[in-house]
Amino acid sequence: MRASNELKFGETYVNRESFEAIQGFHAGWRKSGVGGADGKHGLEEYLQTHVVYVQYK
């Protein structure tokens, strides 16, 4: 997917049926390769989040 190279947000899922739990590991906006945070409090550190879920059949 060429579009995935242009995405500038925390998490992207392609061909995935389930969702991450709030207690999971999260990466923030434009933070790829910089690490992330666990759980609710870690997620709240990011001011802008965007999640994409794509399912192809």
Plain-language structure description:
- The protein is an alpha+beta fold.
- The protein has one domain.
- It is built from 1 helix and 4 strands.
- It is flat.
In short:
With 57 residues, the protein is an alpha+beta fold.
State the separation between the terminal residues, measured CA to CA. Answer: 15 Å
Alpha plus pi helix count: 1
Helix content: 10-25%
Strand content: 15-25%
Average pLDDT rating: 65
Overall strand count: 4
The outline comes out as: flat
Gyration radius over CA: 12 Å
Helix/strand class: alpha+beta
What count of structural domains? 1
Contiguous runs where pLDDT drops below 50 for at least 5 residues: none
- SSE topology string: EEEHE
Described by strand count, sense and barrel closure, the largest sheet is: 2 strands, parallel
Can you list the strand order of the major beta sheet? 1-4
GO molecular function, one term: oxidoreductase activity, acting on the aldehyde or oxo group of donors, NAD or NADP as acceptor
Keywords: Oxidoreductase
InterPro entries: Ald_DH/histidinol_DH, Ald_DH_C, Ald_DH_N, Aldehyde_DH_dom
Protein name: Aldehyde dehydrogenase family protein
